[in-house]
Every structure is written in C-alpha cells, then in structure tokens.
Amino acid sequence: MDISDTIYDHVTSKLSHLEKFIQSKENQEILAEVELGLRSLHHKKGDVYRAEINLTVDGELSRSVSKKSDLLEAIDDSCSNIERQLRRSKRKKGSLMRRGARQAKELLMNWRK
User: Fold this and answer.
1) What does the alpha-carbon distance between residue 87 and residue 64 come to, in Å, rounded to a whole number?
2) Closest C-alpha among 85, 95, 90 to residue 22
3) What is the pTM of this model?
4) Would you write out the chain's pLDDT as a tens digit for each of its 113 residues?
5) What DSSP string runs through 7-38?
C-alpha cells in the first residue's frame, strides 16, 4: 500500500504529540514502529484498514493495533491507545516514587525515636 504525504504527516504529528508523555533523559533510546495497511485485498467493506504502533522507550514496550473502516480513524485510535498506556505508565512511576519516599520518611521518623 502506498502511503501519501498527508498520511505520513498525520502519523508524524500524532507521534510527536506523544513526546510530552515521555520523560526525556540523556542517551535515551526511543523506537517507534508504525505499520499501516489493508487487512486483505479481497475485503471491500467493514474494518478494512489496520494501524499498528509499537513504541519502545528504554526497553518498555507500548503496543496498539486498531482496525477501522478508515485509515485515519485507525491511526487516531492506535495513537490514543498508546497515549493512554503512556499516561498510565507515567502515573504508576510517580505513585511508586511517592510510596518509596513515604516509606523512607516513616523509616527515618521511627529511627529518631
């Protein structure tokens, strides 16, 4: 399947929107793999288009596959699923940091007594 410039620009803008959910570090490895296409050549109606996005940030994989009747809808759906996964991961890391800090504080408070 040939990808036009408008579809390429749409995918690029959607993926660049995800940058704000990735904490930037020095020497951080980020790999985004996008696969777009038709499910098969003989289908004409229904969920014909497929968009798959694999985003690897420092070894942590976020993956989304979407099948829709329009290619742009499939891309949007996959990007929103990746965004949801990145938000959840960021929130989970933050709560782990707070929990660890709370335990360290309790340990220091008990050590003083």
Assistant:
1) 14
2) 90
3) 0.75
4) 678 899 999 999 999 988 888 877 777 888 899 999 887 666 667 678 999 999 998 888 999 999 998 899 999 999 999 999 998 988 887 787 888 888 888 888 887 76
5) HHHHHHHHHHHGGGGSPP-TT--EEEEEEEEE
76 burial type by CB count under 10 A (0-12 exposed, 13-18 middle, 19+ buried): middle
Residue spans of the domains in the chain: they are: 5-112
CATH of 5-112, one of 3.30.70.250, 3.40.50.720, 3.40.30.10, 3.30.160.100: 3.30.160.100
Distances (CA, A) of 33 to 15, 48, 99: 10, 20, 34
The full length of the chain comes to: 113
